[in-house]
Amino acid sequence: MRETKKVFVFDDNRDILDLCTFILEDAGYEIKTSENANNIEMQVAAYMPDLIFMDNWLPDSGGIEATKSLKKNPDLKHIPVIYFSANNDISSLADEAGADSYLSKPFDIAALEDIVKKFMS
Predict the structure, then answer these.
(1) CA-CA distance, 35 to 17, in Å (whole number)?
(2) Which phi and psi (to 5°) does residue 15 adopt?
(3) If you count Cβ atoms within 10 Å of the first and of the last residue's Cβ in the chain, which end, N or C, has fewer?
(4) Exposed e or buried b for every residue in 90-116, given b needs 16+ CB within 10 A?
(5) pLDDT digits 0-9 by tens, 64-103
């Protein structure tokens, strides 16, 4: 029996968090969500996910700063971060943040599942 892979989703939109939880739990992953990036390193270290989804618009620090802190942390930088946002320049935001990939909102369920599979395999 293989260990359940864990995904941590950061988004200030409750509906998106609920949708991601529903889709990813259905696909067999364990999910944790947060509506803010406060103490991002502590939040992530406490759960140690296999993959992180990071919204651009987060209260306080924002997705770019949050992603940068994770990528600077030697214990957490190996965890892939998927940047997700409705911005039309999401690829440059993801680059600036140092994210591993990105997913545009609104996303379709298949696209979400595909990007998770790609990073989990």
Answers:
(1) 8
(2) -65, -40
(3) N
(4) beebbeebebbebbeeebeeeebbebb
(5) 999 999 999 999 999 999 999 988 899 999 999 999 999 9
Q: Where are the domains of the chain?
A: 7-120
Dihedral sign computed on CA atoms, order 86, 89, 91, 97: negative
Query: Whole-angstrom Cα distance, residue 71 to residue 13?
Result: 24
Are the CB atoms for 81 and 70 separated by under 8 Å?
Answer: yes
Fold of the 7-120 domain? Rossmann fold (3.40.50)
Query: How far is it, in rounded angstroms, from Cα 82 to Cα 89?
Result: 15
- The count of residues in the chain is 121
Is the whole-model pTM more than 0.85?
Answer: yes
Which is nearest to 116 in space by CA: 24, 17, 16? 24
